[in-house]
Each structure stands twice: as C-alpha cells, then as structure tokens.
Amino acid sequence: MNVWLQVADTAGAVLVFLGAAISLLGVVGMLKLPDVLSRSHAATKPQTLGLLLVLAGVALRLRGGMDLATLALIGFFQLMTGPVAAHLVARSAYRTGQIERGELLFDDLDAQLTEPGPEREAGPGPDPGARQD
User: Fold this and answer.
1) Which of 7, 30, 44, 70 is least surrounded by Cβ atoms within 10 Å, i.e. has the fewest?
2) If we measure between CA atoms, which residue out of 92, 89, 75, 105 comes closest to residue 42?
3) What would the pLDDT profile of 74-112 be if each residue is shown by its tens digit?
4) Are 40 and 88 in contact (CB under 8 A)?
5) Cα–Cα dist 83/63, whole Å
6) How far is residue 16 CA from its own chain's centroid?
7) What's CA 29's distance to the chain center, in Å?
8) pLDDT digit string (tens) for 14-67?
C-alpha cells in the first residue's frame, strides 16, 4: 500500500473521530443547557461542524468520484437546512413566549411585534410589483 494512502486513511479516521466527538458535545449541550436558544445553538453549530468533519473523513477514505459527489451533496444540504431549522425553532419559541425576553441582549423582533408601523395602520399599500406610469 502506498504511504500517501495510509496517511489519507489515518487522516480520515482522525477526522471521523473528531467529528463524532464534536457531535457528542453538541448532544450533551442539548441535554444540559437551560433554555430554547441555547439548545438550538447546541443543536446546530457543533452538529454541522461534526457532520462536515465526518464527511471529510469519509471522503478521504472512499476517494471515489460518485462517493465524493454524494458526500458533497450531503454537506450542502446540511449547511442549508440545519441553521434554517434552528432559526425557525427559535423564532417560534420567541413568538409563543417560551423565551425570557429580559435575558436577551438585543431584541430586534420586539419592536416589530408590539408596535404597529405606519404601513399597518394605513392599510395595504401599493402593490410592489405594480407598474407605475
């Protein structure tokens, strides 16, 4: 066996182990952290990084063209769906009152939800897609 193949296999095994360890830390964070925002952070940040490290390790081990394309698609969809899902969970928790608003450093959404803006008071405005002559 070629020396470079052994190095690639060893690096792949190390990356898989690191990715699994980071994902395990994310799971521990989801179980131990006290509120929804902290848990959603622990659900996405380490899980995404852990999965990408596992995918990189598996890519170093497989080295096939179709395998690499499949792993790239898995990584792409993980990057697109994981953070968006966590954002939606956190936003719905905020809207249903499951978040202590006093503990937030910045609360940009509060002004949008509590005070009606001028566009809400005046009714519907002009259609943004309408052509104005």
Assistant:
1) 7
2) 89
3) 999 999 998 888 888 888 888 888 877 777 777 777 766
4) no
5) 28
6) 20
7) 15
8) 999 999 999 999 999 889 988 888 888 888 888 899 999 999 999 999 988 899
CA–CA dist 56, 54 (Å, integer):
5
Supply 70's token pair.
């499949």
Type of residue at 63:
R
Question: Scanning the structure block, which residue is given the tokens 């994310």?
Answer: 26
User: Given the structure tokens 């394309």, which residue do they identify?
Assistant: 69
State the SS3 of 11-45: HHHHHHHHHHHHHHHHHHHHHHCCCHHHHHHHHHH
Q: Give the pLDDT score at 121.
A: 53
Written as six digits, the tokens of 112 are: 């949008």
Indicate the DSSP class of residue 117.
Answer: P
Q: Are 25 and 70 in contact (CB under 8 A)?
A: no
